[in-house]
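Researcher: I'm preparing a figure for a lab meeting and need a structural model of a single chain. I don't have an experimental structure, so a prediction will have to do for now. The sequence is pasted below. Please return the structure as tokens so I can convert it later.
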Amino acid sequence: MEAMLSGWETQQRSRMLAGRTIERRSQIVRRFVEFTNDYPWRWGPADVEEWTASLVGTGIAHSTIRNYQMATSLFCGYLADARYRWHEVCDRYFGEYPVQVFHEWNTVVHRGEYEGRPGNRPLSRDELQAFFDYCDARVSQVGASGRKGWLAAFRDATVFKVIYAWGLRRREASMLEVVDWSANAAAGEFGRYGALSVRYGKALKGGPPRRRTVLTTMGWAAESVAEWVEELRPLYAATGTAMWPTERRARVSVDALSHRFAEYRDAIGLDRSLGPHCLRHSYASHLLEDGFDHLFVQQQLGHSWGSTTAIYTSVGTDYKNKALRRALDRAFQPDVD
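Model: Understood. Here is the structure written out token by token.
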């Protein structure tokens, strides 16, 4: 079985899949092995159904269960492929051989374009303001107490502001470097922080990270970044160009951002289903509410399709009423000679 897993991992590396993806899939397969307490050449469809039934009702998202099934199904597909000859090996040694045990009747169907948790939504402007106010207050509290950590608190506050103000994913933000900022000749008021080069965007399957340039739209955010880069970040005595260094000269991890966001969210009583990615949703919604073109927002987020951007957004009633009024005025206003 270990040889099977090793061969499958090699096959995925040959497809240039990300190391994290390969590792995560292998972990899922091992969970299935542990659940069945049996070897792959003895698995049957009933094992899939019992495993899935054990996951339902445990709080695991619909999309997560589907991903578990997909990962293990890919492993079974690899084993059942005659080109890898595992059926010959298993038949010779065990008198049995692996088959594909995942099929359309015992797996989750991907029917919807979006399978995220319903609680993932944009923050209202009041919620966002309360969150950023708490971030800033936390810096003051830690500094006034004389405890170590006020610089890290300032760093984390700035990270969350950048995630929102440039519509970033967590990893995109974590991997930023100070050299990724540049001036935008069309928006000189933002100085050297008029554009942000995102070099670690979400990759397509088997592809490298996608790059995009996000233009600055919020002056207060550019000022916040300038203060961090030019005045406070040097206090870390960082030797590299990481935007968010730690005391150990590493860079802030994605998990650290999630934990800190949850800490601040819970402290001010926001819905526990909200996560850092909701800041990206908020960015898209608020830009549309402020009158930015839908295509501009789509390109800022790095989406290939406008329908994906539409999933991210949840504009307020006031915005929708204004859009309705403009459309009605154009449709019914009498022509003036």
